[in-house]
């Protein structure tokens, strides 16, 4: 699918505020509301836009502690196995295969250090995990829900 500059602007505006009206977006991209709706419908139908969601501040719900955990796995552990295991843990907010020494990188969020430690111990108990290396986040410097520089409003 071809995405032109107007589509990129529409995507960026929706990423910034998914509740923006088609009329508001149209004003910003010089299109009518029905034209914006047609473009958004096309972007959804082709899978460019997969959905709309609320972005919740973890601190507002009490999950103020987070860490990135490198997983080192036994033998021929597949990415699918890691993904299935990661989904079993409510503290896991992201899991990724990575290059380098580790087999995967897992992003954990918890209420406090004790909660984080318990979550980490449950993750380490997965049968394929041979070891982990954790880095606790001290502060967030940049956080963006966007898809890259081409979609900035």
From TrEMBL:
Q: GO cellular component terms?
A: cytosol
Sorted keywords for this record are: DNA-binding, Transcription, Transcription regulation
Show the Pfam families listed in the entry: AsnC_trans_reg (PF01037), HTH_AsnC-type (PF13404)
Give all residue intervals belonging to the HTH asnC-type domain: 3-64
Any GO molecular function: sequence-specific DNA binding
Q: Tell me, which GO biological process terms does this entry list?
A: response to amino acid
Q: Which SMART domains does the record match to this protein?
A: HTH_ASNC (SM00344)
Record-linked InterPro entries? AsnC-type_HTH_dom, Dimeric_a/b-barrel, Tscrpt_reg_AsnC-like, Tscrpt_reg_AsnC/Lrp_C, WH-like_DNA-bd_sf, WH_DNA-bd_sf
Q: What is this protein called?
A: DNA-binding Lrp family transcriptional regulator
């Amino acid at each position: 699918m071809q995405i032109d500059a107007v589509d990129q602007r529409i995507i960026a505006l929706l990423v910034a505020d998914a509740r923006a009206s088609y009329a508001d977006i149209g004003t910003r991209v010089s299109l009518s509301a029905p034209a914006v709706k047609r473009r958004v419908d096309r972007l959804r139908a082709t899978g460019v836009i997969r959905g709309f969601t609320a972005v919740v501040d973890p601190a507002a719900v009490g999950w103020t502690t987070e860490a990135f955990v490198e997983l080192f796995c036994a033998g021929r552990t597949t990415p699918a196995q890691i993904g299935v295991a990661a989904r079993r843990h409510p503290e896991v907010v992201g899991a990724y295969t990575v290059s380098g020494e580790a087999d995967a990188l897992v992003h954990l969020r918890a209420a406090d250090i004790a909660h984080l430690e318990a979550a980490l111990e449950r993750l380490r108990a997965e049968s394929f995990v041979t070891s982990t290396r954790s880095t606790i986040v001290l502060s967030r410097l940049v956080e963006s829900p966007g898809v890259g520089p081409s979609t900035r409003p």
